[in-house]
Amino acid sequence: MKKIIHTQQCGRPARSQSAQTGVMLLEAMVAILIFSLGVLSVIQLQAVSIKQATGAEYRSMAALLANDVISRMWASDKTANALQTNFSSSTAGASYTQWLSTVRNSGLPNVSSDKSTLPTVTFTTIPATASGPASSRAEVTVFWQEPGDTTTHSYIAVAQLR
Hints:
The protein has helices at 23-75, 80-87, 94-104, and strands at 8-9, 12-13, 120-126, 135-144, 153-161. By secondary structure, the protein is an alpha+beta fold. A hairpin with a 2-residue loop joins β1 (8-9) and β2 (12-13).
């Protein structure tokens, strides 16, 4: 019995087996490279997502703390002198000191005097006008510094107290 060997398919000369050696390995390596780049991209996306979520948590916490001190101001004597004496960060009144303790225990990172990240509360007195009585404008600034970050972040809340 004779073997018939075809030397041409579709009008082209047949390639030898040695010319095709390693092509499948090369295709597998390219596929693994593309897959690896995809996995690395997903991991980087996850890392950025976690960092953004942590930043959002700190901003929310700062807003909550600023609203806390403003609520305390609304519940107290709202005269300009009483607000300045009790809540101003420059005079470190009793109410400010109590709120500062709350801020330090809140979990907001790096809130300390050595890093200049203590929260500030300042007041501006607005004189009485024909349309309304005298009032005080309170500006509360909460500072924090995220772990591993060199920049100081802040949240500012402004309230007018009558």
